[in-house]
């Protein structure tokens, strides 16, 4: 069996090096001067008590410039009387791929339209992947994600749960998605105002 | 006799202290310098809390080295089932010990005259009488040869480690380490030969003393000005000898996991890492000694400064000694920093490129450098006679 000699394939965009680059040493010196220059620049900033890095020193330091579209934290929307809009249907908990939402359902006979409400609504941020599926699954627009962070740097997983109190802090004066505060406050009927 | 022993012990203590400190601090320098070079902050979370208070000493992450050491001491010392007991056990030490021993022949300061140093304590001065000590643990005639002899022992350690852990990755890494280190050891030797031709000695103390003069009226007679090519080649070969990026093929983690110490865990693995960091300091010390005038400041002698134009500034003996020791440490530290700069700048070679670079590029260059040096020295000698 005859073997063909190995021929390296030639590509039309074969990178070519000039004589200067082929010599390698000069390019090394150039590279070293670039990295060394960056080092000197940053070091000078540190020495003169400024910050010489792009890193944010979380949690001691917070970035004020989260993007408009950042979806970092869940909120529960509220009825005008401050109770959660959530009807404890468990759709979000079911769709959640990380299984981080825990809802404890309670019964409220005084509100015939929404007899089910969450007595406990907790999210485990140690496992949440921020996919937003809970928001899409919600039939009542009760859970949303906002431009914020859960703010939970801690040493262990047990302390990375957000309870309902912390999720119910969102209280805007106006909202484009739904009339807010809702026009009819008698609780018998809910719909576009 | 007793005096010699005391002085030797003090020197040995100093050397071990300096090397261990360098080994620890360099892990921190490597992290921090790499971080600052790439616009990051670097490891800074380890702290020591002063007991009974809430005062946490962070100190720019200096304690991460201690935390690493503690972690490696406390980890399980796992061994592969089929390992060769003796070779596996001694391999880290065979790598680690020669690295420390090299420092024995490196002069870290000028000549100490205890009688002058302890003038205020007559008893001590009388005890030392007229003895003088070069600041060097072992002022051997064969200084440079010792350096290369111990450098060769390190190769055996790497090969032993790879072979005894009965792992294909380890074995491949060991083979790579072996061929790479032997190739670059040769180049290191050849580049240094040029210096030996010029200085006419392999005694490191004498080499440094010869570098305290001035050439062409203003340049300090440092090796780097006499042998610039050799300096570059030597540093390159030394970094390759130390198996660090861009020459870290023996432990290329994308190919070989960790190379010849894949199967080592806990402090045995730590010894390999520590040896690597100490060797950075050793290479820096060697480079300083051979090419950067050792403990010499330009225009400085044991008596004080002698500037061009025969202006002299005499200094006291103690002051000169301390200055020389500090100068040496500063030079070594700057060279370490430069090596770390190289490590964070250049990408890794391919293995065939690595050996081709050694044998087809650096080897002829080193030979040419040696030839030119020899001819130049010979011509100069002819002209002088």
Explain what you see.
The complex is a heterodimer of chains A (193) and B (385). By secondary structure, chain A is of the alpha+beta class. Chain A has helices spanning 19-22, 25-47, 91-95, 133-137, 164-167, and strands at 73-76, 101-107, 116-124, 143-146, 161-162. Among the domains of chain A are: 16-55, no CATH class; 73-167, Alpha-Beta Plaits. In chain A, the strands form two sheets. In chain A, strands 2-3-5 form a three-stranded antiparallel sheet. In chain A, strands 1-4 form a two-stranded antiparallel ribbon. The radius of gyration of chain A is 28 Å and the shape is elongated. Chain A starts with 18 loop residues before the first helix and ends in a 26-residue tail after the last helix. Chain B has one domain (80-384). Chain B has 14 helices and eight strands. In chain B, the strands form four sheets. Chain B has a two-stranded antiparallel ribbon with strand order 1-2. In chain B, strands 3-4 form a two-stranded antiparallel ribbon. In chain B, helix 1 crosses helix 12 and helix 10 (228-241) runs antiparallel to helix 14. Chain B is globular.
Short description:
Chain A is an alpha+beta fold and 193 residues long. Chain A contains 5 helices and 5 strands, in the order ααβαββαββα.
N-to-C SSE string of chain A, H for helix and E for strand? HHEHEEHEEH
Radius of gyration of chain A: 28 Å
Helix content of chain B: 55-70%
Residues in helix, % of chain A: 10-25%
Number of strands of chain A: 5
For the biggest sheet of chain A, the summary is: 3 strands, antiparallel
How many helices of chain A? The count is 5
Task: Tell me the number of helical segments of chain B per DSSP (H or I, 4 or more residues long).
Answer: 14
């Amino acid at each position: 069996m005859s073997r063909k000699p190995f021929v390296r394939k030639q590509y039309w965009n074969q990178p070519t090096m000039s004589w200067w680059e082929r010599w390698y040493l000069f390019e090394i010196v150039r590279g070293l001067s670039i990295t060394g220059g960056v080092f000197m620049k940053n070091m000078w900033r540190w020495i003169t008590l400024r910050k010489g890095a792009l890193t944010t020193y979380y949690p001691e330091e917070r970035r004020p410039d989260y993007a408009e579209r950042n979806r970092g934290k869940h909120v529960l929307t509220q009825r005008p009387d401050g109770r959660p809009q959530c009807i404890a249907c468990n759709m979000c908990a079911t769709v959640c791929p990380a299984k981080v939402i825990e809802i404890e359902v309670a019964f409220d006979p005084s509100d015939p339209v929404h007899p089910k409400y969450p007595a406990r609504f907790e999210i485990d941020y140690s496992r949440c992947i921020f996919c937003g599926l809970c928001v899409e699954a919600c039939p009542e627009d009760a859970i949303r994600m906002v431009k914020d962070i859960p703010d939970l740097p801690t040493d262990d997983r047990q302390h990375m749960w957000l309870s309902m109190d912390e999720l119910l802090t969102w209280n805007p004066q106006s909202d484009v998605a739904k009339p807010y505060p809702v026009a009819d406050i008698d609780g018998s009927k809910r719909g576009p105002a | 006799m007793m005096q010699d022993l005391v002085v030797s012990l003090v020197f040995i203590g100093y050397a071990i202290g300096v090397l261990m400190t360098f080994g620890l601090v360099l892990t921190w320098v490597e992290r921090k310098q790499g971080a600052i070079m790439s616009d990051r902050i670097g490891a800074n979370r380890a702290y020591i809390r002063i007991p009974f208070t809430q005062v946490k000493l962070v100190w720019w992450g200096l304690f991460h080295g201690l935390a690493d050491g503690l972690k490696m001491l406390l980890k399980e010392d796992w061994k592969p089932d089929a390992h060769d007991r003796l070779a596996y056990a001694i391999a880290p030490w065979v790598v680690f010990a020669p690295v420390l021993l090299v420092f024995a022949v490196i002069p870290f300061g000028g000549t100490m005259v205890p009688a002058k140093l302890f003038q205020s304590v007559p008893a001590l001065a009388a005890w030392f009488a007229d003895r003088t000590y070069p600041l060097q643990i072992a002022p051997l005639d064969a200084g440079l040869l010792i350096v290369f002899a111990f450098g060769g022992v390190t190769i055996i350690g790497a090969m032993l480690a790879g072979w005894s852990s009965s792992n294909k990755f380890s074995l491949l890494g060991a083979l790579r380490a072996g061929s790479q280190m032997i190739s670059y050891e040769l180049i290191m030797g050849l580049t240094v030969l040029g210096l030996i031709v010029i200085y006419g000695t392999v005694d490191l103390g004498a080499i440094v003393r010869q570098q305290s003069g001035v050439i062409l009226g203003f340049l300090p007679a440092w090796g780097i000005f006499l042998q610039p090519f050799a300096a570059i080649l030597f540093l390159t070969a030394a970094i390759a000898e130390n198996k660090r990026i861009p020459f870290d093929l023996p432990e290329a983690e994308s190919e070989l996991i960790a190379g010849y110490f894949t199967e080592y865990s806990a402090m045995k693995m730590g010894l390999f890492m520590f040896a690597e960091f100490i060797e950075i300091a050793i290479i820096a010390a060697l480079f300083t000694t051979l090419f950067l005038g050792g403990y010499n400041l330009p225009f400085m002698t044991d008596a004080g400064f002698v500037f061009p134009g025969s202006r002299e500034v005499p200094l006291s003996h103690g002051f000169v000694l301390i200055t020389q020791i500090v100068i040496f440490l500063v030079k070594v530290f700057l060279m370490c920093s430069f090596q770390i700069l190289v490590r964070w700048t250049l990408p890794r070679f391919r293995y065939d490129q690595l050996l081709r670079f050694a044998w087809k590029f650096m080897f002829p260059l080193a030979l040419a450098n040696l030839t030119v040096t020899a001819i130049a020295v010979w011509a100069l000698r002819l002209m002088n006679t």
